[in-house]
Amino acid sequence: MINRVLIRIKVVQLLYSYFLVQNNFSVQSPPSAPTKEKRFAYSLYLDYLYLMVSIAESINPRSRISPLYETRFIQRIIGDNIMKSLMSKYSGGRCPLERCVDGLCERIKESAIYKNFLKDPKSDSKIWPEIFRHFISIDPQISAIAERYDNYSLRGIDRAKEMVSSTFVDFASSQDNITDGLADLNASLSKARELYFRLLLLPIDITYQREVDLDERRHRYLKSDEDMNPNPKFIDNELVKLLNEDEEIKEFIQKNKLSWLEQNRDVIRHLLKKIIESELYKEYMADPISDLHEDCEFWKKAMRNIILTDSEFLETLENMSVFWNDDLEIMSEFVLKTFRRFEEKASDPACKIKEAVLPMYKDSEDAKFGRELFEVTVKKHSIYRGYIDEALNTKHWESDRLAYMDVVIMVTAIAEILNFPKIPIQASLNEYIEIAKSYSSSKSGSFVNGLLACVITNLKESGKLRK
What's the rounded mean pLDDT across residues 164-192? Predict the structure, then answer.
């Protein structure tokens, strides 16, 4: 019932907010009043960080895959401007500490710390503080090399180690809080499910309100013949009876305490009035034929042409949940599909449909799709943003001038293309191009299409994309 189209939209929306509001982590800046000791400590501090990046790049237990390099700490380090400058500097000559990389890698690979990390790579927030504490900070070769730095002092070494420790603390306090992000995603998907049941509840509550109104008219002091003998066709609608008797609908409504009549009776009265005044209602009530098919057709048309286009109802939904503007189109289609399923199930004894109400997800893969897409996009955001920057024609468009929503859409698209091999590349491209058209600028669709095509070409040429 919640399909991948809606999941992708929600993941992109939440990632956009997530990346904007997350606390910024950065490498420590140079000391403002540098003494000789502070200059030495800062230089060693940066080289410690560079050494960790080198170790991460050097340990490759599987072809083309380096789990240490893909940890969030390393990705945030290599994305920092100070570190970018340092890496550019050392591209023309070795960092003094690089000669220690091979020996450190061998010891790290044999350690319980690293082996436990490989069993649970999601625990990547702890691995680098442990590597630094148990290997780098106590390595005698590193200490010997540090003695040859300008302005060397023992206090400077202690200061450099303290700066690394502070950087770990800063990262831990500002790192991407995936737990909160996933909670927001789950809440948004749950609200979409609630909207589905609220829309299914509308015909039930509107019909009940009509029953109440007819009963009140029967008890008026001055009654007409129509008051005493109203046409019961509307309140005897077979689809409404099926909806009202369905156990899954009843269970969800009771569990979540949903009721338009108790919570928004005014909007129910308004919608009932709009329906009664419509030509659809007049034609339906005048037709002597009364069967399930006609009853279903009436409510499908009423939902599509009256309820879902009513500005007062749409405003009510918007006030009830910030999620529902984006959910309504998809959820309303699923509601109409559910009406058809009720008709098919009740009309045909041989019908294969076991339950007319749609499940929350089509299958287990859809159920975990949003979570996995969100997690991998957050974890590898810097890598995928790098692919975008590589593909940009900087003569025509600078990286920092990209619309941020376009960046989030493309990063998410790359995450899906690289990590969900069962989904065809073109299917992913089409979905994210449509999201760009709807949620970014007017030119975003064609721009995202062209840039993603270039990224995909580069990834295939480099062997990083094989599907």
Answer: 85
